Amino acid sequence: MKRMLFGIGLLLSGTTGFAGWGIAATQTVQPGARSTVLACCSPLDLAGLLVFAVIGAAGFVISMGEFRKKD
Q1: For 4, which of 30, 43, 52, 66 could close a Cys bridge (C-beta 3.0–4.6 Å)?
Q2: How many other CB atoms are found less than 10 A from the CB of residue 4?
Q3: d(C-alpha 58, C-alpha 41), whole Å
Q4: Is residue 58 a contact partner of residue 20, using CB atoms and an 8 Å limit?
Q5: What is the pLDDT of residues 29-71, one digit of tens each?
């Protein structure tokens, strides 16, 4: 149960961090200058997004592993 809560916490923090970093990256360019969110990102921003995506994916894997575990 503790590992499932840990996984869910990682999933939520990764998702929230990814969304927040993406929003912050879009606020650094002129409105309408770029057509996609990823086009607004510098290489450093992409690295931050990748870190949060990995955190979210790890949380998903951990929580699903605990959910499927049979006692």
Answers
A1: 66
A2: 15
A3: 23
A4: no
A5: 888 888 888 888 899 999 999 999 999 999 999 999 999 986 6
- The CA-atom distances, in angstroms, between 42 and each of 2, 4, 27, 37 are 37, 34, 12, 11
Q: Report the half-sphere exposure of 18 (CA within 13 A, side-chain side).
A: 16
The answer to whether the beta carbons of residues 8 and 19 sit under 8 Å apart is no
pTM above 0.70, yes or no: yes
Contact residues for 22 (Cβ-Cβ < 8 A; gap 6+): 37, 41, 49
Confirm if 40 and 25 have CB atoms less than 8 A apart.
Answer: yes
- For the chain, how many residues are written? 71
The CA-based dihedral angle spanning residues 57, 63, 67, 71, taken in that order and rounded to the nearest 10 degrees: 130
CA distances 54 to 26, 28, 47, 48, 57, Å, are 21, 24, 11, 10, 5
